[in-house]
Design goal:
Layout (H helix, E strand, L loop, with lengths): L22 H6 L3 H38 L1 H4 L2 E2 L2 E2 H38 L1
Antiparallel strand pairs: 1-2
Helix pairs in contact: 2-4
Organism: Nonomuraea roseola
Protein name: DUF485 domain-containing protein
Keywords: Membrane, Transmembrane, Transmembrane helix
């Protein structure tokens, strides 16, 4: 007795495939999945903002504490101006600018990652 080979095929092989539903359309139509994606982006951006604000707050609140706890620093003068005044009135602003620049750079990077994730799906 010879065995015969049988090919098993799905009956849907000739059926038309459904068009893919892009994630960007999910976001535009504000479906549940789109909301999940947007919440993840917002959560990421919020964590970044919270981190930057925490670092800046620690520096702004930490400097007066440093000058309070180390009295020798109060006696130091920088170009005729006491060091605490020079740091708190002038040298802290470049740090704010650097923090803002880093925040914007990282926020844009988060958005690019999100865009790549949406386009990949």
């Amino acid at each position: 007795m010879t065995r015969r080979r049988v090919t098993v095929m799905s009956p849907r092989t000739a059926a038309a495939r459904r068009p893919r539903y892009p994630v960007s359309r999910e976001i535009d139509e504000q479906t549940h999945l789109g909301e999940v994606y947007m919440r993840s982006l917002l959560r990421t951006q919020f964590r970044l903002a919270l981190f930057v604000c925490t670092v800046l707050a620690c520096v702004v609140l930490g400097l007066p504490m440093l000058f309070l706890l180390v009295p020798e620093l109060r006696a130091v003068h920088l170009a005729g101006v006491p060091l605490p005044w020079a740091v708190l009135a002038g040298l802290i602003y470049p740090m704010f600018v650097a923090g803002a620049w880093l925040y914007v750079r990282q926020a844009e990077r988060n958005e690019r990652h999100f865009e790549d994730l949406v386009e990949r799906q």
